[in-house]
Amino acid sequence: MTDFSVVGKRRPRLDTIPRALGEAKFSADLGLPGMVYGKVLRSPYPHARILNIDTSQAERLPGVKAIITSKDVMPYKWGVFAYTRDQQLLPLDKTRYLGEEVAAVAAVDEDTAAEAAALIRVEWEPLPYVIDPLAALEEGAPLVHEDKPGNVSVRIFVDEGDVDNAMADAYLVDEGEFTSPEENYCMLEPYAVVANYESTGVDIWCPNAGPHMKARPISNALGIPTSMVRVRKVHIGGHHGGRSEVSPADFMAALLSKKARRPVKLVYTREENMNCVRQVHGARTWVRAGVTKEGKLVGLDFKLIMDGGAYASTGPIAASVAYQMIEETYAMPNLRYEAIRAYTNKPPRGMYPHHPRTTYGGLEMVLDALAEKLGMDPMELRLRNSVYEGYVTPTKTVISSCGQIETIQRAAEKAGWKEKYGKLPPGRGIGMSSSACLIGFPMGIRGGSGAFVRFNEDGDATVISGVVDNGQGNDAMIAAIAAEELGLPIEAIKVVTADTSMTPSDQGAYSQASTILSGGAVKAAAADAKRQLFDVAADLLEANKEDLVARDGKIFIKGSPEKSVSLAKAARTALGRDKAILGRGDRWPKGDHKREWVSNPRGQLASAFSYGTAIAEVEVDMETGRVKLLNMTAAHDCGYPINPLSVEQQMHRSALEAGPAGVMLERHAWTAAGQNINANFTDYWFPLATDVPNIETIIVTTNDKFGPFGAKEGGLSISIAMIGAVANAIRNAIGTTVHDFPMTPDVVLRAIEARNESESGSTTHE
Amino acid sequence: MEQVLIKLTVNGREEDVRVSPHKTLLEVLRDDLSLTGAKNGCEDGSCGTCTVLLDGAAVRSCLLLAMEAQGHEIVTIEGLSDGQNMSPLQEIFVNQGAVQCGFCSPGMILTAKALLDSASSPTETEIREAISGNLCRCTGYTKIVEAVMAASGQPVPVRTHPYEGDVSERAAS
Ligand code: FES
Ligand code: FES
C-alpha cells in the first residue's frame, strides 16, 4: 500500500499567501524606470477598409513617445494551426469587428495616450458586414476573409458506423434544437501587458496560459529569434480558456516599446477585455438520439453552427471537443457530427470549458426526454450507457481509467436523488448529467513539458518548470509532486516557473494537461535527482541504493527509518565530492500523432480522461419563469487528488461557471450595427454570491496509470456536467424542455406557456 | 491640469500627495502610493476589486475622488498585515481555500473585514449579501462564505466529501 506524506493531503495553497497579503504583482501592478503608457485606437465599424491613417496631429501632442499603425508591421498572420493563420496582430488592410485594433500610442500617461489616440485620423471605407452566423453562411453574404468562401472558418465532419440505420432501428428517437448567444470569460483581471524592448531582446509580462506558446508568435510578428522574446513570470488573474493565445496587446506593447525606446505598459479596460481579447462561441445545435427499449444508446447525430467571430482562433479544437467529450462519456456505436464554424464581423471566439452549452446541455435534455418516454430513471439511463476502462470510442480512442459510474452513484447518494427524482412538489426540479473531459492531446513539437530539480546547500530543492499558474494552483501542484517524490516537506520546495528564458518548454494550461504533463515532468526530474542523492546516501548508509527510500527530509533503508541520513547531508556530501545534484525530466502526451482535428479525426485522442457527475436542484416560479438554484452537487473522478482542497476549488469554479453563469445568466447582446451592448459587468450578468447556492463536492479516485501519483485533472468535467444538470433540473421542474440559453425568466416563461398551449391544444383535439 | 496637494491617512500613515483633482482614490493608491493591492477590475463600480476601508466601511475606491477621501482613515489590504505575517482573517481565507487567482481577494477580504467588524456572527445570507458586490470567477463563493463563518468562530458546514483514502490497492488489484 502506498503511503504518501504530501500528495493526497488537504493543505492550504502556499501560492495564495502573497495574493491574500495583497503583495502579489499582476501585470498592471508592475512599473519600470522610464515607463510610458499605451492606449489603443479601435475600429468604429464592424467591417471597414483602412484607406489612410494620419498620425501627424497625434504625434505633435506633447508627451507622446510613440505611435504604431499598420505601417510599422510585417504581413505576419497569427493562427493556432498552420492552416488557420488569419489574424494580423495589427490589421494591414481592413478591420473585421467593431473594436478591432487599428493603431496604438505610448505617452507619458494614459490620459495623454488616449488624447493622442483620438487625434489619429483614419480614412475608412465601411464595408457590408454580417453579424448573424446563419446569414454569414448564406450565399452572397459579405466575406469576412476574401480567401474564405462562404465564411466557413472550420468544418468538422465525423461519421462513424451507420447513424441512419441505427435511428431507423431504434426503439425510440428524440431530437431537439438549441440556441445560445456568446458568453464571456469574465476573468477578473483585465488584460494588461508590460513590455521592455532593448537591444538584447524584449521582456514581456502579461496574463497567459503558457508563456512558451506566446514567445513564438510574438517573435514571429516582431521578426526576431524566439530566444530574444522573454515572457516572464507574473501573477495571473484567471485564464478560464480566454488567455490561450497571443494577444494583439502583447505585440503592440512590444512594438511601442521598441519605437519609444522605453518600457511600455498597456492596460485594457474592462470593456476592452470583454470585447477585444476573446469571447465564447455563440452556437446552434440540433441533436438527435436513438435508444433501444432497454435504454441503450444506439446512435447520436449532431449538427452545429458556431459563431466564430472574425478570426479562426482555436476553431478546429473548439468545433471538435463537444463530440469528443460526448463519445468519451456515453458508449454508442454510431456517431455523426457536423460542425460549421462561421466567420462573422464580431470579436473572435476561443475555447471555454463547457462550450457549446447547446451541445452538452441539448444532448442531456434529449436524453432525459428519452428516459421519460421509456419510463426510466435518468440516472439508470446514464448508468447503462456509461463508458468504462478499455472502451473504444467510435473515433478509436481508448478510455483509460474511468470512474464515471462511481461519480454517478456517489453524487446521487449525496444529493438524495432516489428520494427526490419524480417526488418533488410542483415547481421544483432535480437534474443530473455526467461528462468526461479529455486530458492532454498531442500538440506537436511544443506539446510536452520539461523540468529540472536542483538542490541547494541547505537541502532545499528548487523546481524549474515551464508550467503556468493562472490562479488554479499549478505552482503548488508541482511543489507537492516534487516534495512527495523527493521525500521533502513542501515548505522545502521553491518553484521557478513560466519564464521563457529560464524554464524548459511546456505545453501550457491547455486541455487540462498541466498535472499529467507538467506535473509528470516534475516527478520524473525529482526521481532523477533522488537517484543521484541515493548514490551518495548508499555510501553513507552502507546500503544498496535500490533499498533506499526518502521521506520527511530523510533517506533510509526501506522499513528501518531509525538509521538515516538527511537529504541535506546527502546533497552537501555530493557537493564535497564535486558533484551537483541536478535532476531532469520530461513528459509528452500519449496520443496518436496522426490524428488531426479536421483532416483525420480518428485515433487515440488524449492521454487520459477525467469524469464527473453533477446534480442540481431548482425551484421555478411558474408565474414569472424565475429560476432559483437551490443546490449543486458534483462528484469528480480526478484520478488522484494531489491536494483535495485544490480539486474542490476547481470543482467550485466549474460549477459556478456552468450552472448559474452558463445555464441561467450569461449572454452577450448586439445591435444590428455590430456593437456589443453589454461588454461590462453592469449589463452582463455575472453570478453574484447571492445567485449561487452552496456547492457540495465529492472526490472519486481511480489512480490513472499515466498521471503522476495517479492524478488526472481537477474539475473540468464538472463544467460540462453542470450544464446538463441545471438544464435538466429546470426541465424537470416545468415539465418541458427549454431550448434557448441562458434560461432567463422570459425564456423559461415562454417554454412554460408553450407547454400550456400544447396541452390545452391536445385536450381540445380529444 | 492643475495639481493640488492633498493629505491622506492610509494604513495609519499621513501621506502628502500632489494629484490632479479628477484622480480617483484607486488611482492615487496604486500610482502615487504604490499600494497595488487594490485592483482595478472595472473602474465603474461594478466588480469590487478596488474595495478599501474608509473609516471602517467597505467602499469602492474607483468611485471616490482622492480629494474626497481627505480626513478619513483609509485601510488597504497592505494595512491588514505587517507584510510578513498574515492577519487572522487573511490566514483563514488561505486555509479555507477562499483564494484562488487572488485578483478579487484584497477587495473580498476587506469587505469581509467590514462585515465582521460590524456583525459578530453573520448568517450565511448576511455574508452572501455583504459580498454580493465583490465578483469572483474562481471560487464559486462557497469557500469564501465558509472562511467568513470560520473567521467569526462559527462552525463551517461540511460540504466536501473526501475521497476514500488511499486507493492504490484497488488500482493494483
Ligand atoms: S474597480 Fe472599482 S468596482 Fe471595479
Ligand atoms: S479568486 Fe480569482 S476572481 Fe476570486
Give keywords.
heterodimer, A: 766 residues, alpha+beta, Aldehyde Oxidoreductase, domain 3, Aldehyde Oxidoreductase, domain 4, seven-stranded mixed sheet, 20 helices, 30 strands, B: 173 residues, five-stranded mixed sheet, 6 strands, binds FE2/S2 (inorganic) cluster
How would you describe this protein?
The complex is a heterodimer of chains A (766) and B (173). Chain A has three domains: 182 residues, Aldehyde Oxidoreductase, domain 3 (Alpha-Beta Complex), CATH 3.90.1170; 331 residues, Aldehyde Oxidoreductase, domain 4, CATH 3.30.365.10; 144 residues, 2-Layer Sandwich (Aldehyde Oxidoreductase, domain 4), CATH 3.30.365.10. In chain A, α6 links the parallel β12 and β13. Chain A is of the alpha+beta class and 766 residues long. The radius of gyration of chain A is 27 Å and the shape is globular. Helix content of chain A is 30%, strand content 25%. Chain B is 30% helix and 16% strand. The termini of chain B are far apart. With 173 residues, chain B is of the alpha+beta class. Chain B folds into two domains: 79 residues, Roll (Ubiquitin-like (UB roll)); 73 residues, DNA polymerase, domain 1 (Orthogonal Bundle), CATH 1.10.150. Chain B has a five-stranded mixed beta sheet, with helices on both faces. Chain B has six helices and six strands; from the N terminus they run ββαβββααααβα. At the A-B interface, α1, α18 and β30 of A face α2, α3, α4, α5 and β6 of B. Bound molecules: FE2/S2 (inorganic) cluster (2 copies). The site of one FE2/S2 (inorganic) cluster (FES) has 12 residues of chain B, from loops.
